[in-house]
Amino acid sequence: MTCKLSHSLSVAIFDSDLIATRLLLGFAEFLWAVMLFWPGETFNRPTYSLMAAVASETVWACAFGLTSYFQLHIVLNSKQHTLSAHYFALWNALIWAYVVCSMLLSVYPPPAAIAGEISLMLAATWVFVRPIILQHYYRLAYEHGRQH
Predict the structure, then answer these.
(1) Cα dihedral 83/87/92/97 (nearest 10)
(2) Is residue 109 reached through a cis peptide bond, with omega within 30 degrees of 0 on the bond before it?
């Protein structure tokens, strides 16, 4: 039972193509852009004080809009295995990490509604880290195969 569960978990984590994850990230980034372009002063709330210190709502909206566009472009054009897509994944993980950490550090207690953003941050980080892990084990397997 444990071996079967371990195998199933391994397949789910490492044998997926992450297209659904990228689509979800792209949609979330699009919604962030829409909400930040929405008339009003979102950044007047204390939750966004650290984000406001870095850039205006409009700049953040543009950043999320462009990020959404590139995320969807990568998926719709099957470019997820390119080097540029990997560099983009780093950008994506960093923007989500900054947004989440800044919201968590801006108010106490942390807002419960940020749970979704934490999940998105972890997903974006996984899209970046997973190919590095796979490449490492492919290299080990190749070297092991050459020795035998």
Answers:
(1) 130
(2) yes
Q: Residues 123, 89: contact at Cβ < 8 Å?
A: no
d(CA 85, CA 70): 9
Closest to 47 measured CA to CA, from 94, 118, 115, 101:
101
Instruction: Report CA 105 to chain centroid distance, whole Å.
Output: 19
Q: Which two tokens stand for residue 1?
A: 């039972």
Distance (Å, whole) CA 72 – CA 91 = 15
Q: List pLDDT tens digits, range 73-112.
A: 999 999 988 999 999 999 999 999 999 999 999 999 988 8
Question: What is the pTM for the complete model shown?
Answer: 0.84
Residues 6+ apart with CB under 8 A from 80: 17, 18, 19, 22, 74
Q: Residue 120, Cβ neighbours under 10 Å: how many?
A: 21
CA–CA dist 134, 37 (Å, integer): 38
**Max Cα distance, the chain (Å):** 66
Domains of the chain, by residue range, sit at 18-147
